[in-house]
Every structure is written in structure tokens, then in C-alpha cells.
Amino acid sequence: MLEITDLHATVADKPILKGLSLTVAAGEVHAIMGPNGAGKSTLAYVLGGRPGYEVTGGSVRFNGEDLFAMDPHERAAAGLFLGFQYPVEIPGVSNLQFLREALNSQRKQRGEEPLSGGDFLRLAREKAALLKLDPEMLKRHVNVGFSGGEKKRAEMVQMGILDPKFAVLDETDSGLDIDALRIVGEGINAIMRSPEKGVLLITHYQRLLDVVKPDRVSILSAGRIVQTGGPDLALRLENEGYDAVMADA
Ligand code: ADP
Ligand code: MG
Ligand code: MG
Fold it and tell me: Which residues, by range, are in coiled-coil regions (predicted)?
């Protein structure tokens, strides 16, 4: 589903990704772990097409198509979703307005009819219930005054509404308490666990992987994937640390 080959990318002319290769098949959750500054968030931004992140080599195929030939809106319409470590606040725009606009603009790009107000509201309430987010919060301005956990749950509500084919989730577990972590993890499972979907799950901690069980685990270090294994690799990292596991490789 996602095939990254020898990817090189720079930020402010500084090389960050240095020959990163990684494949995620449909039906898989692939966890990416790695030390701070390794380039994990850079990988997420490059996949999303964020300005300032320059691809200087390599290729990414998404469902067989050249990802870098698509602009960020086309990537989203093609079913790519990005969840960020630090969700942005949008004062003046309610969650409902924002989500309906995002969904209908993607539907339009795919040549589908927009969802009616009533159908959209039902969908939004259903996904809020899944993430145990008070539906009243959907009326509030995007992320303004939300706690860390509410922001992450609101982002997962967004993911549920957009129903993407592939999600790249960057430290979705950061700042979550134990209960919120389980709710968010189970939300990811409910929305994304399917033979037709894939997930790249960037995380520092095993605790999210206890809920969202990965099929594969890779270590990203200094801009490259240095090791890939099964779920046991994450457990070893938790117990032994990056240095010890990478020294063994
Ligand atoms: P990770 O998510 O693995 O902790 P990042 O992808 O955030 O790592 O960062 C990788 C490297 O890129 C770090 O050395 C970081 O300082 C650098 N970097 C990230 N964004 C910028 C930027 N906007 N300008 C300069 N350097 C950056
Ligand atoms: Mg970091
Ligand atoms: Mg990061």
C-alpha cells in the first residue's frame, strides 16, 4: 500500500532523511520507533507534503501511484490521513464546520456528492461516541482550549469521519493518560483495522502498542530504517533501550 524507497529529504537545507526504505502492506499496522531527532516527524510531514520539507531523492508509491506527483489535497482525497504530534488550533472555526468542510472537499475531489447536514451530523455524533468525546465539544472552535487528550480524541473523530485508507499517526499517544490512551487506541483499531487499510504508527512507547498491536516494528535512526521485526522488537526496545538493541543488530 505504501512503498517508500531510498527516501532522502532536507529541512532548511539540512539532510534529515537519508535513504529511508519501508513498505506497509494493506491490512498492516507498522510501528516506527526511534530516538528523538531521528526524523520520525519529518517522515510524516514529507508524506503529507508539508511546505519546507524538500524531497531530494527516492520515491513513495501510495496504492501504486506516485505520491509526490499529488499535492497535499490530492493525497488526502486519495485516502491518506496524517495525525500530528501537536494538533493546531483554529480560532473562529467550529469543529463541525471544519470537519464537514474537510469531508465534503475530499468527496468533491473524488467526484462524490457532498453529505447533507443531517447525515453529516449523525456521522459526527457516531464518531464522537466512539472516541467518548462529548458531542458538545464538536460545536467549539477547533482545539481552542482543548486539553491534550481532548485534542487527540478530536483528531481521531476527524479520522473516523474522513475514513482514510491509510493513516500516518505521529505520537498520537503523547500527553494521554491511561484511560484516554486506551480510548484512542481502541478508536484507531475500530477505524483503521481492516484488510484494506494500513497504518504507520509513530510512537515512543509500548503502552500504545499494547492496545494497537503492530504487525511490524521498525527502528528509525539518523534518517534511515536500521532494523525491522515483529511486535517483540518493541518489547525489547522498551526493556533494553535503543542503543543496546541497535548495537546487537
Ligand atoms: P523525531 O520526530 O524523530 O524526534 P524530527 O523529524 O522532528 O525527529 O527531527 C529530525 C531532525 O530535523 C532534528 O535534528 C531536528 O532538529 C531537525 N529539524 C526538524 N524540523 C526542523 C526545522 N524546521 N528546521 C531545522 N531543523 C529541523
Ligand atoms: Mg521527537
Ligand atoms: Mg517527532
Answer: none
